[in-house]
Amino acid sequence: MKNLVLLATFIFSVCFYACNDDDDLLGSASIQLSVEDDSKSDIDLEGIEVKLTNVIDNTESVAKTNTDGVAFFEVLAAGTYNALVSINEPEKNLIINGTRNDIVIVSEETATVDVELSVVNPKAGLVIKEIYSVGANDGYKSLFKDQFIEIFNNSGETLHADGMYVANLYGNTGTAGSTTDEPITNVLSVDDYVYADFIDRIPGGGADYPVEPGKSIIIALNAMNFKEDNPAAEFAVDNTGADLERYSVKWLEDKGLMGNSWFDFDNPEVPNMTNVYMMAPQNLWLFNSYGTAAVLVEKDVEFNDSGIVDYETDKSSSVYKLMRIPVEKVIDGVEILENSKSGAFKRLPKKIDAGFSYLKADGGAFYSSMSSRRKIDEESSKALKRVVLLDSNNSAVDFESIDVPSPRSYDDVKY
Amino acid sequence: MKEKVILSVLISMFMFPYMSWSDDTLYCEVESVIQHVDLTLYRYHNVYSKSPSLLSLWRPTNRSYFDFDYNGGKGGFFHPQSYQKIWMLNFKTESLYHKSESPWSFYGQFAYSNGRVDSVRYNLSYDIELNGSPYYYFMKKAGDWNLQYYYFDAAASRVINRKLALAFNIKYKGKQFFRLIDTRNSQTKLETELKLGATYTVNKGNSISVTAQYEYDKMEPSLSNKFQHSSASEKLLYNIYLNAGMGTYFKAVTYICVTTYLVPGVSVQWISNPSSNHMNSLSYSCRSGKEEWKNKAIYSAEKENIYSKYEFQDHTVSFATKRGLTKSTFDGLFDAQILQGKGFKFNDTSKKYTQNYNFTNINAEFQTLVTRKESLFDQMSLGVKLDFTKKRDKSYACSMEYVNALFNVGIRAHMNIKDKYLYVSLHPGYCHNFSKEYDEGIAGDNIYTNWIGNPVYEFVSTNWYCMDAKIGLRSVIDKFPVDFQLNYFLKKTTGGQDVLGDKTADHFTRMGCKFKIYF
Predict the structure, then answer these.
(1) Is the Cβ pair A360, B334 closer than 8 Å?
(2) N or C: which end of chain B has fewer CB within 10 A?
(3) Number of Cβ pairs closer than 8 Å across A and B?
């Protein structure tokens, strides 16, 4: 009898606690689209697909806008989201972008968020096709010595790259757990200028570096074959085919500074880039290995000491001397961050790159051999019968993460 | 029908000590000593250790032993975040000491274990879900671990006067876990617990004890890689996550968290006739604990920035009784516990804590043990344990709950061979799932659900049976009683149910040997 009483007590307790439940923390979101430029206000905002990405578990929710241009997401896990709108209609020569990062969804509340759409005029010109910066997964043999950037001619005519600048933008990339990381935009506005720690210039007198339609030029840190004598050659890259090399030891030594001759080699067979600016005390031109933001800048810009700005934060005693670059002079730019929740760390303004990309959504691509590559615009390529790359000024749409670097991978693609 | 059978067995167990069995020829002095020590320590752990000052009233016989044990097990039917293979070497010694003319009574224990476990999956912290906490590191890559445990437990009680006894009890447990493959983890955890108690003798047969306890634990992992593991083909294999619920987690974890646990508690115990053959005890204890995960780098500098917190409370009621008859004793134990916990996760975008996780566990356990001195079947036991567990991630509306009951019986038979005592014991058990429910909510595509949630649910809601068999020989070496034992344990799903999608996943076996010497 006593045992039955105990059993009954237990069952009663179970029922009591089972009923005593707290509410869930689900939330919802209402995304209101609007057009940034009033002159384009005739764009129909109905039926536009809006994508919300949970920056933690990377799950995606999609909803279409109603007649008022509102996309409603009824059930979302409480957390942080990035919103993305991307419309690419080549037949109308229309590209529309809209992004909003770090939208916080709170339980039992509807987050009302405005996303401004910007209409992009596709520039058929030189674009960044690929950036490889995270290092090879080859047992620390190549380290980061094998970095390169590839610039592609997306137009139908031959263009010359002579005199253009390539720059690495400074800023943290959103590495989780860092005690000092903070977005550069907390201190410096990127509306009119972006801020570089290294700038190099493509040499030439105006006709030395022609780039044919659908072709590209490669600028490597070291124009060496890293596959040679490498047991993990499949993860390494052969940079001997590079058109240009970035070598800064001599330039630094001429200034009375010491270069990094362990990391920075000079292949006499490959012409060197012209060194323009390097932030002290760095001694090497190196893309940010956790996530690169790089820009291609027009040739008619002069960089001198008047363009140097101080960047300092409360979390660090260091003062960083960065060279500012006018946004209006940027031909193309790509924002690659550490992972899908690093949106707050963007270094480029929306007008250059509306979104951002990453190699692995959950981070950890350091020494992975992975590379960021611009995707082919299949429809345009078929229509124009040549390789045309996506260029919606939104790397979240235009770029893909690939397993190993692929220099000149589109050279043999035919349409 | 099943209920009637269980009830009949239960009634039989209660009646068992009052039945008259006799077989004087089977009586053995060695067995008497060993049985006495084992029963004394069994009662210490289940009754008297709750209030260390009861040592003064209990005044047990002075006894010690050394225990060496080696066992190994393997099989596919195991908790998905636990091991698939295990080898453990254990050493343990325990002593009870009371000098008749002294006001002091003592208890001491030292234990050391060293072993290895294989194939621990989705778990980079090893010792996880303590008190229902959802916080632990995990990664997809399974790992092998070396384990070391050190345990020290000492209690001293002093009679102050005829009415009052005071005592303290200190426990110190060191746990060292070493993950042997990338991502490696050298993790140390130190657990210290202090109890201060007093027992007041109300009248000749009744005493009340009050004990305050304070537990402080600290865990510090050290994560590192020996090799590169970041290629695209290993995309999710080596990513490190900090779990924070059932779908909620921190990703791209590159920092090390130091975990601290603060658990104060209090207990009250009434006991009647503690040193007699008709003892009854009723106790209530409660604890309120807080677990905090702090970024190691920031913890040193600012002593803030806590990534996640888990707060819990538990309440335990225990009743114990002992009936000693001429040739038999009966021990009955009943424990009921309610444990509730809440998890708080820090949102690094909103800079606020979100109370996103709830945990409830209610369990009740009833055990009886009948020991007879002069009988072929000299030990019989019966136990029933009911367990209700519910956990819910509020951020993902993901919940899991189940009710399991574990039934077990035990019987030991023996025979004397000259001056030696040979015994065989069998403890079959059966675990039945009465109800289960798993609602993934909106965590259906979440890695937690795919990696951990689904396989864990499948494991905890599976019916299984087990058999624990032992054969041993008790003898005397140089006047000291010794016990050699071989044991075998089998756990198998009912109907050969394949739990984890592997044909070998329906069972788990363990074998071992033990040598114990008594003083």
Answers:
(1) no
(2) N
(3) 156
CA–CA separation, B153 vs B111, rounded Å?
Answer: 9
What's the pLDDT band for B301 if we cut at 50, 70, 90? very low
Q: Is there a contact between B230 and A75 if contact means CB atoms under 8 Å apart?
A: no
CB contact under 8 A, B347 and A175: no
Question: CB distance A6–B336 less than 8 Å?
Answer: yes
Q: In this structure, what token pair is assigned to residue A368?
A: 């992975």
pLDDT digits (tens, 9 = 90+) for A316-343: 778 899 999 999 999 999 999 988 888 8
Among residues B20, B68, B30, B63, the alpha carbon closest in space to that of B423 is found at B30
* DSSP of A333-359: EEEB-SSTT-GGG--S-TTT-SS-B-S
Distance CA A48, CA A50 (A): 6
Tell which residue, B424, B441, B408, has the closest CA to residue B488. B424
pTM of the model: 0.83
Per the prediction, chain B carries an average pLDDT of 87
Structure tokens at B424: 């065989």
As a CATH number, domain A27-120 is 2.60.40.10
User: Could you tell me the residue ranges of all domains in chain A?
Assistant: 27-120, 126-402
Residue pair B347/B395 in contact (Cβ under 8 Å)? The answer is no
Sort strands A126-132 and A148-153 into parallel, antiparallel or unpaired.
antiparallel
Contact list in A for residue B247 (CB cut-off 8 A) is 57, 77
For B194-240, write each residue's pLDDT tens digit.
999 999 999 888 999 999 999 999 999 998 888 877 777 776 788 88
Q: What distances in angstroms separate CA B317 from CA A239, A335, A374, B40, B48, one per listed residue?
A: 72, 60, 65, 22, 14
Distance from CA of B230 to the nearest CA of A (A): 4
DSSP class per residue in A155-198: SSS-EE-TT-EEEEEP-----TT-SS---GGGTS--SSEEEEEE
Q: Does A57 contact B388 at a Cβ distance shorter than 8 Å? A: no
Secondary structure of residue A295 in the 3-state scheme: strand
Coil, strand or helix: which one is A33? strand
| Average pLDDT over chain A, rounded to an integer | 87
CA distance B344 to chain A (A): 12
Q: Are B456 and B486 in contact (CB under 8 A)?
A: no
CA separation for the pair A369, A170 (Å, rounded): 22
Q: Is B496 helix (H, G, I), strand (E, B) or coil?
A: helix
For residue B404, the cross-strand partners are: B387, B433
Single-letter amino acid, residue B368: T
Q: What is the Cα–Cα distance from A55 to A58, expressed in whole angstroms?
A: 5
DSSP letter string, B262-323: EEEEEEEEEEESTTSSEEEEEEEEEEEEEEEEEEHHHHHHHS--EEEEEEEEEEEEEEEEEE
Q: Report yes or no: B56 and B165 within 8 Å, Cβ to Cβ.
A: yes
Please answer yes or no on whether B230 and A137 come within 8 Å at the CB atom. Answer: yes
Q: Chain B partners of A102 at a C-beta cutoff of 8 Å?
A: 349
CA distance B448 to chain A (A): 9
Q: Based on the structure, what is the number of domains in chain B?
A: 1
Contacts of A140 in chain B (CB under 8 A): 228
Answer yes or no: are the C-beta atoms of A202 and A277 closer than 8 Å.
Answer: no
CB-CB contact of B402 with B362 (8 Å): no
Q: Would you call A24 and B386 a contact, using CB atoms and an 8 Å cutoff?
A: no
pLDDT > 70 in chain A, percent = 91
Are residues A176 and B349, on separate chains, in Cβ contact within 8 Å? no
Angstrom distance (rounded) from CA B442 to CA B438? 12
Residue B367: give the domain boundaries: 2-518
Candidate from A26, A177, A369 with C-beta closest to B397: A26
Q: Nearest CA of chain A to the CA of B175: how many Å? A: 26
Phi, psi of A142, rounded to the nearest 5 degrees: -85, -25
Q: Which residues of A touch B401 (CB under 8 A)?
A: 18
